[in-house]
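User: Modeling request: complex.
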Amino acid sequence: MPGATDAKPAKPLKNPCNLCQSVRAILKRPKTGQQLCKECFFHVFETEIHNTIVDNKLFNKGDRVAIGASGGKDSTVLAYVMKLLNDRYSYDLDLVLLSIDEGITGYRDDSLETVKRNRDQYQIPLLIVSYKDLYGWSMDDIVKEIGRKNNCTFCGVFRRQALDRGAIMLNVDHIVTGHNADDIAETVLMNILRGDLPRLQRCTSIITNDTSEDSSGIETSKILRSKPFKYTYEKEIVMYAYFKKLDYFSTECIYSPNAYRGHARVFLKDLEAVRRTAIVDIIHSGEALSASVQANESTKLPTMANCTRCGYISSNELCKACLLLEGLNKGLPQLGIGHTTKIRRMAEAANLASGLSSPASLSSSSTSGAAEEKVKVVTHIKDLGQLKTMPSLDTV
Amino acid sequence: MSCSVEEPTMTIAEKRAKDRAVHVGFCCKCKHAKSTITVRYAEYCETALRNARPYRVITPENVMLAFSGGPSSRALIHLFDVFHSLPPEVATNKKQPKIYNDIHVCHIDESCLLEPAQDREQQDITSSSGSTMEQARSIAAGYGYSFHGVAIEDIYDPEWTDSRCFEAVVTLITSLPKDQLTTSGQAPELLSRIIPTPASSTSEEDAPKLSRQEKINKLKALLGACTTLTAKETVLQHFRSSLLIQLAKRGQCTILALGDSATRVAIQIIELTSIGRGYSLPHETSLLSNWVQDCKVIRPLKDCLVKELDSFCGLNGLELIERHNAQLDWTIKTKADIKSIRRLTDDFITGLDKEFPSTVATVCRTAAKLTPPEATYDQKCPLCLGPVQAGVQEWKRRITVTTAPGEVDTTITANTSNNTETETKDSPDGCCSSDAGGCCTSSQRPPCTSHQTTITTTTTTTTSPSTSTPFSSLLCYGCLTNLRDLDLKFMASQEDSSDELMSSTSFELPPYVAETIVHRMGFASLDEFEHRSVAAAPATAVDPQESLRTQIQEFLIPSDDEDE
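Assistant: Request completed. Predicted assembly structure:
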């Protein structure tokens, strides 16, 4: 009942919260359109994530879990909520923050400051792993080399490996990332548009890298990855961060621009404006489609093996990261992007022509001198534990 | 060019063929023209080879072509003619197998949904101004195909159902009282009420039970109850499919051919994904679909872009029907509603295809590799007649929390029990047993004058007597999502008094929906449903043990203390 302290009968509440009916509503929930008060919003937001975690049995008690932290809103809220739920429902998880420094000046260095603040605010230890240390190339270097097209491919591939490597260094069982419902819906649409069946089958899984049933005997890190925000709307994450006054860094990557994903994103926003449940509907459709792909035995899904150079899981002899790195080091940035046979032919032809040294015809002369510095062999997975040069865990 | 059989290098097979050949040097088919081509050791003249069918036909089937009047379906008709026609000298040869037996054309006249020109003054719309039926008929006649026409409003005619005469309609009711609904945030649990339509007062057997105007009004009432353009378009699409399938069955056709172009299929794939129909997507976009019993649905033009088909029609001078599809713009009240998911997807794919020309082909190829769910002819969604996934409502509830802090969610347990009850097909009392002690007498029909079907929401807590049947629990995910867009003020709540029920419900769902609900509940016919025994409804759920026992009764050996 609205608390009127005087003897007058309480005025009927204008615009009461739909759930508790006891306080005035201050927001409209993007997922359902309900009008809620702050506390009820926090309650539904947090409870839904808890339900997702519990229903999908994401964690075991005592698991050591790394939270992929970029400093953006998704990972900040993820860190906050993971800690909150861990305490509230006694998941007994050992939480750490893992951050990747791609080496993008004016973007990543700022967001890393945010992550460091998060470490202090939420009292969770932090490890930062950088591309420069791992691969010898920062994103700034890469973009200087290859231009602004296809750079997202490099960054994505390198980041995925970097996260896993960081996780091995931290000796965790599980990585959680802040992929939200909008991301997954976009990915479903993108995979249909691009005809990528294997990805379509995997993209709606809440837990990936689950090789427990895989008996092929390959060496994998067996670190699971999951997305607790799978059914959480991006708008609600922003709203949560806003009302909880959480600290996050919110600009777009400066190299981002014309990725194909942008088209899917605009379309998704339009759909959401017409029907707010469209995002969840797409995820539901995606789950059904994933089962359909799986049922189709004629779809050839790639078999997994280990990269011969660095030991990472791969469907080819060389994992994508090693392939890309090879291209960068040799001055053949197209290697690993698009159809490789043509590039390989060119590379082989160039190699033969110049006698196996850096092909001068294909790379600029300025990099050939610096080539020796940049060539770096990526550390094999099994050696990661003994690294001396990596930054050590930045404890609180 | 002539090939002669060479003597010195003959193989054994050639020798055998030569021995078999009765008329060496002459065509083996017509036997009198000189042979010019040798194929597989048999000689043919040119004419015979052109007419030889390089495929095997087991039994020729009847085909129904769905003709909307647009360029894709117009091209379909023409191409079928080209493909199927035989040159006269062969047509008279009865032994020549045909690929298809009879070709029929059907058309759905949607002119009642076009923008009203002067409909206000014109109450009687029997004059065919704006009707597309005659144009369609004359086009079909040009090819000598049998023509079947139906109007979109005929979906409300009891004739257009599997049983040919299912005289009942469905109204929906919300399970919660209205004021609770607006705040719940969840899609309301809808129940249905099957209202048998009163028997026709005329003695004529063939007189249509409803006049055309009445049917149009019902259709418009339903469309009016949908608040978004997306919902309207989707519901219309379901009605169209239902009519097409019925038309195919009436024409004794085992194949229904749709003129969907590659562009249309690609748009459809993205649209279906966006409205949550991923489960039925493989059936709705494949080249050949077996989802409908006894009727194969094919999309032969699936690899042609709509631009190609458009040019094809133009170059061949094929006439189209203007304004052939329902235009629903005039039903929209606010500017915000002008967009629908279909239109957005259309713009998106068309735009994307300009920049990345292989988009349409890639999308179609992706969907072609999906395995459709098993065809279960008796588990169809009442609204769209498509496949239904299990646990759909449960999934929705899990991902959206709608209880306040500290509150226990009672709707989950309550509705689950409702679900299990409705799934026991053996017990006809299933639908009513949720009402504790409620007496559902089938004689409790609303007065004849009201055609209102009340949509009743069934809450398990209510004790008011109701002849309500499940609805939301029978739907597929796509239809559940779609019906969220129904305007609640057009529906009554289960707890309303009968007066309120009469006045507030104002739309009905067509007979085929009633038929499917009745079948899903385990009854074979409307009669059986109406005469189900309701008086003996126990307060609790029907004991499955008991129903099993009755089935094996004859095999049970009575124990000594039982008589007989």
